[in-house]
Structure formats: structure tokens, C-alpha cells
From TrEMBL:
Keywords: Membrane, Transmembrane, Transmembrane helix. Residues 107-234 form the Fatty acid hydroxylase domain. It is found in: Membrane. GO terms for cellular component: membrane. The keyword Nucleus does not apply. GO terms for molecular function: iron ion binding; oxidoreductase activity. This is Fatty acid hydroxylase. GO terms for biological process: lipid biosynthetic process. The chain crosses the membrane at residues 12-43, 73-92, 98-120, 141-160, 166-187. Pfam families: FA_hydroxylase.
Length: 239
């Protein structure tokens, strides 16, 4: 497997790398979104999940989300190119693909994403950005699994730089970088699917889906991605 990975990283054209990256994000979105929703509905039928908002989502909203998500996927497709470029230049050194470097890399990327997403999201809520950029994501007043990539192209560009902004300072295995979008989109589905464990009373992991759902529906100051620790640290600051 290592020779194949090296062949792809060092010998493939940038056009081919874009095609692979674009296809990967396309598969994550269109392949996993309906599957994730089907699992949610199955768990709801068994009273394990509960809908957060009972408001019906229109077909027009879903079509809007898919259209803008497809544009975001095009932007995400380009995200591999600067990463491969700095690898080929020798700016970054890749770690071997062992189970602990892959797992450790995913954990570090997850934690870095929490910081990265928080500050990008705060930026998006500045008045100018909200009016011209972030309003697209907030068109999904009641979010769905198809909302996860529904961004303005500029917001998609900023969000796509999670690995790029840390790789010059820390070594990763390339498999960790490759797997991270899968972890990210699954967490995104959980935050946008309009379902949660429990009845919404109290706090805890069971109400994970509530935080971002309320950010869409009620404009609450939940700027974090999954852990929300930065929301607590900066709780006293104004929006």
C-alpha cells in the first residue's frame, strides 16, 4: 500500500489529484448523507432518537443545500493540491502509516479543527460576512444532513484549510489526513440531522445535535464544532 500512496503523491498530475479529491468528497456527501438519515429514522422508530424541530423542511430547501454543497465540493476538491505541493517541496515530512500515527493524527486534526472552525465561524458572523457569505448556510433554518456542505464558496475555501494550516508545523501520516474528512462529515451529519438522543432536558453528550441545530433555528451563540469548549471560554464576548 505504501508504494501506491507514494506513487499517487509524487507521480500523479495535479488534475488527477483534484479528480480523486473531488470524487472522495462527492462520495462522502451523496453516499453517506442518505445512509445517515436512514439510520436516524430507524433509531427514531425505535424511540432511541428524537427530532429536535418538527418543522417540515421543503424540497426547495434541500435542493438549495445540494446545489451549494456541490459548489463547496468543487472547492474541497482543490484542497489536496497545496498539501501535495508542500509535500513534494519537502516542506512537510510525512509519518509512516501505522495504526497509532493514523489514530493520533486524526485526534490532533479533530482538536485543531475545533479551534480552526470556531474562529472561522466567528468571522462568518461578522455583519459583512453574514450578509454576503454565511447567510447561505443559515438559509437552512431547520438543518438537514444535506446542509453540511451548503456554504458560499469563500466559506468553503476557509473551512477546507484545516490540514493545510497545521501540517507545516506538525507531521502526520497521509492516511490520517485522508480519513479526517470522513470523521468530520459524520460529526457534521450529527450536528445537522435535526435528531438527538434524549428529550432535550439537561446537558451532556446525548444532546450533541441540539447545539448546532439551535444555532441555525434560534441564532444561539454556538460557534464551536463538536466540543464547544471555546464557546465556554469566550462566553462573555458579544456576537
Amino acid at each position: 500500500m505504501e508504494p501506491l500512496i507514494e506513487h499517487i503523491l509524487y507521480d500523479y498530475s495535479y488534475f488527477s489529484l483534484f479528480a480523486i479529491s473531488f470524487g472522495y468528497f462527492l462520495l462522502l456527501y451523496f453516499g453517506l448523507a442518505p445512509l445517515f438519515l436512514a439510520v436516524c429514522r430507524l433509531l427514531e422508530s425505535r424511540n432511541l432518537l428524537h427530532k429536535i424541530s418538527s418543522e417540515k423542511v421543503s424540497c426547495l430547501q434541500v435542493a438549495f443545500e445540494i446545489k451549494h454543497s456541490f459548489r463547496s465540493i468543487i472547492v474541497f476538491g482543490f484542497s489536496i493540491l497545496p498539501i501535495v505541493f508542500i509535500i513534494r517541496l519537502g516542506v512537510v515530512e510525512l509519518l509512516p502509516n501505522t495504526w497509532y500515527t493514523v489514530l493520533g493524527g486524526i485526534i490532533v486534526l479533530f482538536l485543531w479543527n475545533e479551534v480552526h472552525f470556531y474562529f472561522v465561524h466567528r468571522l462568518m458572523h461578522w455583519r459583512l460576512m453574514m450578509k454576503h457569505v454565511h447567510y447561505i448556510h443559515h438559509k437552512s433554518y431547520t438543518p438537514t444532513v444535506y446542509s453540511v456542505y451548503s456554504f458560499h464558496w469563500f466559506e468553503a475555501l476557509l473551512l477546507s484549510t484545516v490540514p493545510l494550516t497545521i501540517m507545516p508545523f506538525m507531521s502526520f501520516s497521509i492516511l490520517a489526513v485522508f480519513i479526517f474528512p470522513l470523521v468530520s462529515i459524520l460529526l457534521n451529519f450529527a450536528g445537522h440531522c435535526n435528531y438527538r438522543f434524549g428529550d432535550g432536558i439537561g446537558k451532556g453528550w446525548r444532546h450533541f445535535g441540539t447545539y448546532h441545530n439551535e444555532h441555525h433555528g434560534k441564532g444561539r451563540k454556538n460557534y464551536g464544532f463538536a466540543l464547544h469548549f471555546l464557546d465556554k471560554i469566550f462566553a462573555g464576548q458579544k456576537r
